Amino acid sequence: MQHFEVNFDGLVGPTHNYAGLSFGNVASLSNANASSNPKQAAKQGLQKAKALADMGMKQGVLAPQERPDVLTLRRLGFSGSDAQVLQKAAKQAPQVFLACCSASSMWTANAATVSPSADTADGKVHFTPANLTNKFHRSLEPQVTGRILQATFQHEKYFNHHVHLPDNEFFGDEGAANHTRLCSNYGHAGVEIFVYGRHAFDVTQPAPKKYPARQTLEACQAIARLHGLSDEGVVYIQQNPDVIDQGVFHNDVISVGNQNVLFYHEQAFRNTEQAFAEIQQKFGDQPVHFIKVDTHDVPVLDAVKTYLFNTQIITLPNGEMAIIAPTECQENAAVSAYLDKLVTLNTPIKQVHYFDVKQSMRNGGGPACLRLRVALNDQELDAVNPNTLLDDNQFERLNAWIDKHYRDQLLVSDLHDPQLLIESRTALDELTQILKLGSVYPFQQD
Ligand code: SUG
Q1: Out of 5, 66, 141, 174, which one is annotated catalytic?
Q2: Tens digit of pLDDT for each residue in 52-101?
Q3: Can you tell me the distance from the alpha carbon of 69 to that of 77, in angstroms, rounded to the nearest whole number?
Q4: Domains of the chain by range and CATH?
Q5: What's the pTM?
């Protein structure tokens, strides 16, 4: 049997904009109210996905969400026609309105936590959508995310879908952004590393002081239970509260793992030595490559600015590892010097490829935020909805779909335009046909 890691990239939705919604995410706040280019954003993401497919990787896409979220606006008391709901909300509650327009589902690293069948008690691939409770705009995602995941991974024989955790800060869960899996081979049982920002119930434990810790230990433990993971296959590590206060709002902004490699910044974790000893012990006899980046080589602020750790580390079909980095890393002298050196060191990482995903980066989303990793064997891969997998044909269709429906400029002041809602729904309706998802969106269920 063959095993693959398949990256499912989030398609950027037609309302991609910069509304400054994410306190604690430096890029989101500093680009608030800038003009966005949804067409370019969607194309940059799709091109990165296609480039990985062209490198011989298995690559899929996940559909975006319906925005503006008229259903939520109605739940919050805005009434009348859809156009009136938009106008009233934009005028009476602009912050709430903007939250209901965000295209944030594009960052599919936050869509769910996924455990491959080799790790789970029932031998199925498990999915738990993230509840994303810490930010109102993101807390609107889990239900439709669940539907999209079920339409993508349909077969009950292979896939086990859970409901997202209770919508409460005690169980704040940001999905795969705080979860990395190490393994000797994608098909072998691995070590699932859950990184949390704070303890929800034991408030005597250290926590960040300035910015929120979005993920709790208790959420991580609940997911491990739901997925039927064994204690021998799980390690919990607390993120260093000081780096959260420097803008590291998810662990995937300060570390990334793949197979036997954990690439991390020296300040990423609390109790690093103890946690790494546990990882090595659970990983087994082969050594894990713990690749540490020192502060004097790359300060935390440069890591946050360039997203050095929001890179994808992928294993190419020839067995070599490559690092997929945003062009911001290339443009920073210290970081590009570091990456040039990294590929010459005695580690499995031998190549670096740079991608322009600037539209997403301006909201704090790098290459790794844009993808959800799903390790599958060949039978499971055959059971995936084939229309969601990216080949040359699907790439051409999606590219043409973006050209047809997306605007090339959007200001936050355009978001209440009723025409944008119509454009957005028309685009998503067509997308559900291209990807053969069925009726996953609220507007399709009226
Ligand atoms: O949740 N930004 C996202 C970025 C998510 C990045 N994902 C990972 N690190 N895996 C967030 O903060 C900004 C939206 C705005 O401000 O318009 C936003 O939601």
Answers
A1: 174
A2: 999 999 999 999 999 999 999 999 999 999 999 999 999 999 999 999 99
A3: 13
A4: 3-67+102-441 (3.75.10.20)
A5: 0.98
